[in-house]
Amino acid sequence: MQGFMDHFSELLAQQANIIVVGVLENAKRQLQDLQLEAESREETEEQPSFQVSNIEWVTNKDFTVAIGAKQIEEYISTWEFSNCWLHCLDYLKEEELEYRIQHHYRVRWSIPTRRKPIPRATASTYFIIEISKVKPPIFPVEVYFYFESNRLLHRPGKSRFREKWLKDIIESKIILMEQVTF
């Protein structure tokens, strides 16, 4: 009886081995098929029609107020907006903090027309260029910007500009002016 049980255990182990090998081969094939499917899907999927743009910002040691203004203009030129918008850039102030120096700029936007060359309202974008006192001088400056009436801080290369933000600011100012009588 003992010999029969040993032979039976051996046959059982062989069958179990055949089943396990088959299951592993099927699983491997299944994973390969899923991977091929995913790759073909990635190739056929459309890429988003927008791109978050940025520029190469100046280093801490090379920064000047004029270079900062030039780079803001360069960065704004990567934004997508209709050519009816005009803007002007102003340097506002320098603010010295414990570990950094902040330079504040304002870009004022408007849509002048032939009938109304002086616009009823403008929208502003505020830029902060930060020079670190603790980072190595070869590191690029930190840049942040936000839109008037908004608290959200944007970073170049991290968020995509939308012309609608400017339009919303101007529309809300016009609505407010219509409500107030002088």
3D architecture notes:
The chain has 182 residues and is an alpha+beta fold. 40% of the residues lie in helices and 21% in strands. The chain has three helices and four strands; from the N terminus they run ααββββα. It has helices at residues 2-44, 65-76, 163-179; strands at 86-96, 100-110, 123-132, 142-147. A four-stranded antiparallel beta sheet has the order 1-2-3-4. A hairpin with a 3-residue loop joins strand 1 (86-96) and strand 2. The longest helix has 43 residues, at 2-44.
Please give the structural blueprint:
Blueprint: H1 2-44, H2 65-76, E1 86-96, E2 100-110, E3 123-132, E4 142-147, H3 163-179
Antiparallel strand pairs: 1-2, 2-3, 3-4
Structural descriptors:
21% strand; 4-stranded antiparallel β-sheet; 3 helices; 4 strands; 182 residues; alpha+beta; single chain
Report a brief summary of the structure.
The chain is an alpha+beta fold and 182 residues long. 40% of the residues lie in helices and 21% in strands.
SSE string, helices as H and strands as E? HHEEEEH
Helix content: 25-40%
Rg measurement, Å: 31 Å
Number of strands: 4
